Amino acid sequence: MVELTEEEAINFLNIALGEAEKSLQKELKEMPIFCLLINEEKKIISSSYNYTNESKNGSRHSELIAIDKYIYDGNYEQMKNLNLIKCYNNNENSIEKSIQDYFVSLDEKKNSELKINNYENINDKYMNEKYNKIQERINNLKKCCIVVTCEPCIMCVYALKLIGIKNIYFCCLNERFGGCGSVLSLHKKYEDINVHYIEHPECSEKSINLMKAFYKAGNPSAPEEKRKRPIS
């Protein structure tokens, strides 16, 4: 399980904040929150900003996407809607069922390359190799930590708990949806979650200012009648 010093966390937060700013420049502006997935060697192995507007899916937060990108690797674009995280707390959608869906969908996307018609016909060797690769990545996640520019929401904290990530670093509180103390303190309910609020003035101020810029500009994906301010 990787743990960061405050100096290391600040360095990663500055990287994440620089990337978060870029999300404001996208045509479909996204909430400027960025997440880094850090491994035991303290290297970035995956990252993402929010995709809620682009995907029209309110659950596509940066933390979940960074994990999906790591699990699916080069197949992320084809597999991103499966979201393996959900299988951990749903008896009707076990890890085996999610991996079955993975193979079926992969077949649909790359049938000419893989020449697989359905899950039942997948060669055992091929299935085992893919299964083991995914399982290895899921196990690796338990050794990682995340660095995110804003306190993760309740949904994301619970997802991180399910996946087994124990250390969460952030520099800005989420007073509307935060799951690390601002609204709910899930880290107190689940003792295997360690919350690290990095109270670094420059990082916190930049994160807050980025979100102010997002709200000032207006959300292009919000219905007209729901907007409190015009799109600039």
Automatic annotation (TrEMBL):
The cross-references to Gene3D superfamilies, in alphabetical order and at most eight, read: Cytidine Deaminase, domain 2
Classification via InterPro entries: CMP_dCMP_dom (IPR002125), Cytidine_deaminase-like (IPR016193)
Q: Which Pfam families match?
A: dCMP_cyt_deam_1
Instruction: Cite the CMP/dCMP-type deaminase domain residue spans from the record.
Output: 9-74
Q: Which GO terms describe its biological process?
A: tRNA wobble adenosine to inosine editing
Keywords (alphabetical) are:
Hydrolase
Its domain of life?
Eukaryota
Any one GO MF annotation of this record: tRNA-specific adenosine-34 deaminase activity
**Protein name as it appears in the record:** CMP/dCMP-type deaminase domain-containing protein
